[in-house]
Specification:
This protein is an alpha/beta fold. It has two domains: 233 residues, Vaccinia Virus protein VP39 (Rossmann fold); 60 residues, Helicase, Ruva Protein, domain 3 (Orthogonal Bundle). It is built from 13 helices and ten strands. The strands form two sheets. Strands 5-4-3-2-6-7-10-8 form an eight-stranded mixed β-sheet, sandwiched between helices. Helix 2 packs across helix 3 and helix 9 packs across helix 13. The longest helix is centred in the first third of the chain and has 14 residues. The two termini are 37 Å apart.
């Protein structure tokens, strides 16, 4: 067992009351006709100790509203509800989205009204108004499998305002973890804390400081929104199917972005350009965006930085200073 991992039962041992064990996960998947797919990055957690550990590490408090992305069969969802949170779950798989309310109702009936489910791609969430209210299941229009698994209730009444999640807690699919985080952090400014389980390599990139081997675009862009830190490792054995990579927990704590006259899009465009040719100096890497190597050098020097440095040495504040002195980004530059 990894030194960072809490001691907890795994495999086919009996799960805690209400939570899902290995046998429960397999039986539930079989009843739904679900086979985990690599396309959706589905690896289902089947260990009660692990999901409770994630909830504790996230600092979830009774009564707070938590956004969960990719709840799957509901292992982490049940642990969040058990801790007293209201959970807004966004699930891209129509069968899983439709089945989740029934799973909660059968295992934690006293907490079923505290769950809201939206069948959607998390990348389409642009703000709180896109999320369901608790006690509401919103399927996509007439998708097969959703209505039969859990009939949708009426859409929530927005007169009282949309739900306001204060935390994100999720087991994110490895292939979309960074894009999802960089979409949700600006879209949901009410979120102050994030705890996500991701591929260990992704965790290292998100939490990497400037100058480290793994520091890059995800590290710099995440730093615009939050302070990221890796807080533990998760054993492969708590997943079904067992992945061929390690997983880790990353905590992000919201903070104010750098004070700058540049927009986020302008700063992120500098980040993208600086890392597009990682081994080149800022003078060379930023030449295309600035118009020439000479213009890039002038901008970097005006920002008080050495143009012979590489992008991996700069923090987000220094990227912001350069963005203030460069011309507008070319069309098509990534801004998320």
């Amino acid at each position: 067992m990894h030194p960072h991992q809490d001691s907890a039962p795994t495999g086919d041992q009996v799960a805690a009351p209400g939570l899902l064990g290995a046998g429960d996960v397999r039986r539930l998947a079989a009843s739904l006709g679900v086979r985990p797919t690599k396309t959706l990055g589905q690896n289902f957690v089947h260990d009660a100790g692990t999901v409770r550990r994630i909830v504790r590490a996230a600092g979830v408090e009774p009564g707070e509203t938590v956004l969960e992305v990719g709840p799957g069969l509901g292992s982490l969802t049940l642990a969040l509800l058990e801790a007293g949170a209201d959970v807004l779950a966004v699930e891209i798989d129509p069968v899983l989205a439709g089945a989740l309310p029934g799973t909660v109702a059968s295992r934690l009936p006293h907490r079923a009204a505290h769950l809201g489910v939206l069948h959607a791609d998390a990348m389409t969430v642009t703000g709180p108004a896109d999320l369901p209210g608790v006690g509401v299941t919103i399927p996509a229009a007439d998708l097969p499998g959703v209505g039969s698994a859990a009939p949708a209730t009426d859409p929530p009444d927005r007169a009282a305002g949309p739900p306001v999640p204060t935390s994100i807690v999720a087991n994110l699919p490895y292939n979309v973890a960074v894009p999802v985080l960089l979409r949700l952090l600006p879209s949901l400014p009410s979120v102050r804390r994030v705890m996500v389980m991701v591929q260990a390599e992704v965790a290292d990139r998100l939490a990497a400081p400037p100058g480290s081997r793994t520091y890059g675009v995800p590290s710099a862009k995440a730093a615009w929104y939050a302070r990221a830190e890796r807080v533990g490792t998760i054993s492969r054995t708590v997943f079904w199917p067992v992945p061929n990579v390690d997983s880790a927990l990353v905590r992000l704590t919201r903070r104010e972005p750098p004070t700058t006259t540049a927009t986020r899009a302008e700063v992120f465009a500098v980040v993208d350009a600086a890392f597009s040719q990682r081994r080149k100096t800022l003078r060379s890497a930023l030449a295309g965006w600035a118009g020439s190597a000479a213009a890039a050098e002038a901008a970097v020097r005006a920002a008080g930085l050495d143009p012979t440095l590489r992008g991996e040495r700069l923090d987000i504040t220094e990227f912001s200073r350069i963005a203030e002195r460069l011309p507008a980004p070319a069309s098509g530059t990534l801004s998320e």
